[in-house]
């Protein structure tokens, strides 16, 4: 029997590696000492860096627990307070509603999504065309819908494909329970195909994730911070698009060209084709499903198609907050497909709720940044510049901070300061609009560099699909690198020369 102290150590962060546990403990013990020696500003920056490190180790340990301990410590040390955390959380309440209800709503459209995407996957003429379709479709949808909603759809589809193949590779039937997280039962002859399938899905997921950023930058409703920027600049939907188009359209073209190149040349982990054996299994499963479809299954597909249409119309016309539309879809899709048991409905919320909790923990770190004024020196130095140099530095500063922090928070801070400078007569209306575009493009484009730059990327990293396809923090950064270089450079050129 182990001693009680040893039991505490083993229970701390569960199955995480010992070195990781000791690293977390060292951070938690060292931060109070650092606060006493170096003061709140340096300690605040260190906590931001530590939290990013915990996100990077998401496959070793889900970031909610170590990140939550770090957030609790920040509050106890006085770097922020519960009121500030609550304020940051309520500002982002629409995003929380979206995560809780929209992601669950997409879960109840899974059969329809698998049906449609299986058709596309099996009929695609080339790997590159399929990659371009994932990236381009995500871009178009994200311009009018929410990036998290779009990525939730793609993740649901990817997880569905993975489960179908993993069942067959494990010698299991398509009915009944099966744990896709364990490969112990995977037949030896299927292991290489499973690795190839994982690489294929990683490429598709990353193309789709980048696509949400390409489309999200272009319109007023593409990203949460776009709504805030449009409100401060008093732009409507068309005005927002026209003001940002000189930067957003070149970035979109550059992104699609990059998608084709990296996939065709098989750079940075892209371009792995769908293994022939996997395609055959998916095709056979699709034919079996079509053959076995009873009138009840067909009725379910029809109801889900109607729900999907209502979803698109509701989001397109913005009849309500995105999360409330998701709740309506849950009610409609379950009521007319026979899902009335509590445990079946509850299963839909398993994917989003851990990430929702993690997002609230992240708002504690955002509150630390806000209360300790960590970004203010950078903002002041940027506004002190003039002309095109100020535009360039505004873009660079927003991009750099968005990559390590949260792009919604960064945009909020910068657009308020820029609006204040305009109201005080420091800058003209034309300069204000140019800087607003620089803030918009800067917070949307360079933030693809890291998973914590955008909520959609962080959602993908912490999804149940990511560990299945071996998509880690470091691999996401590596696969995003060509996009980061090309899109960031194109965004800078466009902001400086054409805005």
Going by helix content, strand content and strand pairing, the class is mainly alpha
Q: What's the overall geometry?
A: globular
Rounded mean pLDDT score: 85
How far apart the termini lie comes to: 69 Å
Unreliably modeled segments: none
Largest sheet descriptor: none
H and E string = HHHHHHHHHHHHHHHHHHHHHHHH
Total of helices: 24
**Total beta-strand segments:** 0
Rounded to an integer in angstroms, the radius of gyration calculated over CA atoms is 23 Å
Provide the helix percentage: over 70%
Topology (SSEs and partners):
Layout: H1 4-11, H2 18-38, H3 40-56, H4 64-76, H5 82-91, H6 93-107, H7 110-123, H8 127-144, H9 147-169, H10 188-216, H11 224-233, H12 237-265, H13 276-292, H14 295-317, H15 322-335, H16 342-347, H17 352-371, H18 376-383, H19 387-404, H20 407-423, H21 429-444, H22 455-461, H23 465-468, H24 473-497
Helix pairs in contact: 2-3, 2-4, 3-4, 3-17, 4-17, 5-17, 6-9, 6-15, 6-17, 7-9, 8-9, 8-10, 8-12, 9-10, 9-13, 9-22, 10-12, 11-20, 11-21, 12-21, 12-24, 14-15, 18-19, 19-20, 19-21, 19-24, 20-21, 21-24
How would you explain this protein's 3D organization?
With 499 residues, this protein is mostly helical. Among the domains are: 79 residues, no CATH class; 248 residues, no CATH class. It is 77% helix and 0% strand. Helix 12 runs parallel beside helix 21, helix 19 packs parallel to helix 21 and helix 19 runs antiparallel to helix 24. The mean pLDDT is 85.
């Amino acid at each position: 029997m182990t001693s009680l102290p040893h039991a505490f150590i083993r229970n701390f962060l569960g199955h995480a590696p010992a070195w990781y546990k000791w690293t977390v403990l060292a951070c938690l013990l060292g931060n109070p000492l650092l606060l006493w020696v170096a003061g709140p500003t340096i300690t605040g920056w260190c906590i931001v860096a530590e939290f990013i490190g915990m996100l990077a180790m998401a496959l070793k340990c889900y970031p909610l627990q170590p990140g939550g301990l770090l957030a609790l410590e920040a509050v106890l040390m006085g770097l922020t307070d519960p009121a500030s955390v609550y304020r940051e959380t309520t500002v982002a309440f629409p995003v929380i509603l979206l995560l809780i209800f929209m992601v669950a709503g997409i879960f109840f459209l899974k059969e329809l999504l698998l049906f449609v995407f299986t058709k596309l996957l099996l009929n695609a003429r080339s790997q590159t065309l399929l990659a371009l379709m994932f990236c381009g479709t995500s871009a178009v949808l994200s311009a009018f819908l929410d990036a998290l909603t779009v990525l939730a759809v793609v993740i649901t589809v990817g997880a569905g494909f993975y489960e179908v193949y993993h069942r067959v590779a494990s010698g299991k039937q398509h009915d009944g329970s099966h744990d896709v997280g364990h490969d112990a039962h995977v037949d030896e002859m299927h292991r290489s195909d499973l690795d190839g399938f994982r690489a294929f899905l990683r490429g598709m997921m990353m193309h789709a994730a980048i696509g949400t950023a390409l489309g999200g930058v272009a319109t007023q409703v593409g990203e949460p911070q776009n709504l805030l920027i449009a409100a401060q600049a008093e732009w409507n939907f068309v005005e927002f698009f026209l003001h940002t188009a000189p930067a957003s359209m070149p970035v979109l073209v550059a992104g699609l060209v990059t998608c084709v190149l990296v996939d065709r040349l098989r750079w940075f982990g892209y371009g792995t084709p769908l293994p022939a054996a996997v395609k055959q299994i998916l095709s056979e499963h699709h034919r079996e499903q079509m053959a076995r479809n009873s009138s009840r299954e067909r009725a379910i597909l029809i109801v889900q198609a109607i729900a999907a249409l209502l979803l698109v119309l509701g989001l397109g016309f913005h009849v309500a907050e995105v999360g409330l539309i998701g709740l309506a879809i849950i009610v409609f899709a379950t009521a007319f497909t026979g899902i009335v048991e509590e445990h079946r409905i509850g299963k839909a919320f398993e994917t989003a709720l851990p990430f929702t909790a993690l997002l609230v923990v992240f708002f504690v770190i955002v509150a630390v940044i806000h209360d300790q004024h960590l970004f203010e020196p950078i903002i002041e130095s940027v506004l002190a510049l003039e002309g095109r140099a100020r535009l360039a530095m505004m873009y660079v500063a927003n991009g750099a901070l968005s990559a390590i922090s949260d792009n919604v928070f960064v945009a909020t801070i910068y657009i308020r300061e820029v609006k204040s400078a305009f109201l005080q007569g420091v800058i003209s209306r034309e300069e204000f609009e140019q800087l607003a575009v620089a803030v918009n493009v800067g917070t949307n484009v360079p933030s693809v560099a890291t998973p914590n730059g955008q909520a959609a990327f962080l959602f993908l990293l912490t999804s149940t699909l990511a560990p299945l396809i071996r998509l880690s923090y470091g691999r996401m950064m590596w696969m995003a690198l060509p996009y980061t270089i090309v899109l960031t450079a194109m965004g800078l050129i466009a902001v400086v020369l054409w805005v």
